[in-house]
TrEMBL record:
Source domain of life: Eukaryota
Stored Gene3D superfamilies: 3.50.50.100
Domain FAD/NAD(P)-binding: 13-288
Physiological role: Putative FAD-dependent oxidoreductase.
Xref: PANTHER family: APOPTOSIS-INDUCING FACTOR 1, APOPTOSIS-INDUCING FACTOR HOMOLOG B-LIKE
Protein name from the UniProt record: FAD/NAD(P)-binding domain-containing protein
C-alpha cells in the first residue's frame, strides 16, 4: 500500500468521490478555493438526461460526454474506484491513500459505462446502428427513460414500428395521472403501441423470429428491444468503511439539512446517494452540489456553522422530453404537453446550459 498523499492545503483538502453531475459540479466550484481531488472510475462525466438523444443521434453525445480534465483545471483527478474511507483518508482500488479535510460522497448509481470517453461514444454508435437496422423495436418499461426513448425513436424514425410495454397501470407513475394520460395520448398519436399492465418474459425470447411473450400471453414481434432498468445505488462498498452505519435500508446515506452525513462534521453526501425525500433528478443533484460547496467554504473559512445553508426538498417539477420539439411538464399547479414545455427542454436537453455551468463552450467540442 502506498503512503498517504498529503497535498497540504492547511485544512482545505477536499476529496470528492464520484464524478457524475453532482460530484463534477462541486469539484469545479471548489477547485480555486480548496485543494480538490476528484476520484472517479471514468475519465469523463455524462449528462444523464441527454443520453437517450445520443442513441438516435450519436453526434449529440459529443457535447454531453465531458472529460473531467476539461473543467477540473486546478484540481487533481484520480481515475480509480474508492474502496475504503477512514477518518482522514480515502483508499483507492490501487492502494493509494488520499488525505482529506472535507469529504464529499457523490457516487450516485452504479453504472457500468466504459472508462474512456471514446469507448462510450462507440457504444452510442452501436446503439444507433441497432435502431437503424431494425424495422420494429420494443421498449420495456414505463418510466421517464423508457418514455423518452420510445418518443425519440418515434420522432426520428417514424417509419419504424415502436411498442412500449409497461407492467404498471399507467406511464410515468412517479408523477400525476394527468401527465400520464397526456403522454399516452401523445405516444399513440405518434403510432407507438402502448401495452399497460403487462410484463415481458425476457428469458423466453426466440432469437430466430424475435418473438416476445408478455405476462398476458400476448405475442410481440420486434427486431430488437431496449430495457431501461433502474440501476442500484453505488453504496454497497460503504458497508466496510466508517460510514457503515450511515445508510438506510435502501443503501442511501442519511444526511442533515446542511447535506452533511448525520453525525459527521466534515463529510457530505450529495445527489442520488442521499436519503432526501424527493424525486431523484439531475438538476436537484446540482442544487445539492451548490449548497454543499457553499457550506464547505464556510467551514474552511472558519465561520460559524449557523451561517451554513440548508437544503429543503423540492416540490415536484418534472419535464419529460418527447422527441425534439415536445415535452410533458408537471409543475406545482399545472400540467402541460407539447411545444411550450418542449421549448424549455427538448431541443438541446439543457446540454449547452450544463456545459456553460462547467465553464465550457456550450456549442463546440474540440478533441
Amino acid at each position: 500500500m502506498e503512503k498517504a498523499v498529503d497535498f497540504g492545503g492547511g485544512g482545505r483538502r477536499v476529496v470528492v468521490i464520484g464524478g457524475g453531475v453532482a460530484g463534477s459540479l462541486i469539484a469545479k466550484k471548489l477547485q480555486f478555493i480548496a485543494d480538490v481531488t476528484l476520484i472517479d472510475l471514468k475519465e469523463y462525466f455524462e449528462i444523464p438526461w441527454a443520453s437517450l438523444r445520443g442513441m438516435v443521434e450519436p453526434s449529440f453525445a459529443e457535447r454531453s460526454l465531458i472529460n473531467h480534465k476539461d473543467y477540473l483545471t486546478n484540481g487533481r483527478f484520480v481515475a480509480s474506484r474508492a474502496i475504503n474511507i477512514t477518518n482522514s483518508d480515502v483508499l483507492t482500488a490501487e492502494g493509494r491513500l488520499v488525505a482529506y479535510d472535507y469529504l464529499v460522497i457523490a457516487t450516485g448509481h452504479d453504472d457500468r459505462f466504459p472508462k474512456i470517453r471514446n469507448e462510450r461514444l462507440a457504444e452510442y454508435q452501436a446503439e444507433n446502428e441497432k435502431i437503424k437496422a431494425a424495422h420494429s423495436i420494443m421498449v420495456v418499461g414505463g418510466g421517464p427513460s423508457d418514455v423518452e426513448l420510445a418518443a425519440e425513436i418515434a420522432v426520428d424514425f417514424p417509419e419504424k414500428k415502436v411498442t412500449l410495454v409497461h407492467d404498471g397501470p399507467r406511464l410515468l407513475e412517479f408523477i400525476g395521472p394527468k401527465a400520464s394520460d397526456k403522454t399516452l395520448h401523445w405516444l399513440k398519436n405518434k403510432n407507438v403501441e402502448v401495452k399497460l399492465q403487462q410484463s415481458i418474459e425476457l428469458d423466453r425470447i426466440s432469437n430466430e423470429n424475435k418473438t416476445y411473450i408478455t405476462s398476458s400471453r400476448e405475442t410481440i414481434k420486434a427486431d430488437c428491444h431496449f430495457l431501461c432498468i433502474g440501476k442500484p445505488l453505488a453504496s454497497a462498498w460503504l458497508k466496510e468503511t466508517i460510514l457503515k452505519d450511515s445508510t438506510d435500508g435502501f443503501g442511501r446515506l442519511k444526511v442533515d439539512d446542511n447535506l452533511r452525513i448525520k453525525g459527521r462534521k466534515n463529510i457530505f453526501a450529495i445527489g442520488d446517494i442521499t436519503d432526501i425525500k424527493e424525486i431523484k433528478q439531475g438538476y436537484l443533484a446540482q442544487k445539492h452540489a451548490l449548497i454543499a460547496a457553499k457550506n464547505i467554504k464556510i467551514l474552511m473559512d472558519g465561520e460559524k456553522e449557523s451561517k451554513m445553508a440548508t437544503y429543503k426538498p423540492h416540490s415536484i417539477k418534472v419535464i419529460v422530453s418527447l422527441g425534439r420539439q415536445d415535452a410533458v411538464a408537471q409543475f406545482q399547479f399545472t400540467t402541460l404537453i407539447g411545444l411550450v414545455p418542449g421549448f424549455i427542454k427538448s431541443k438541446d436537453l439543457f446540454v449547452g446550459k450544463t456545459r456553460k455551468q462547467m465553464g465550457l463552450d456550450p456549442h463546440i467540442v474540440d478533441y
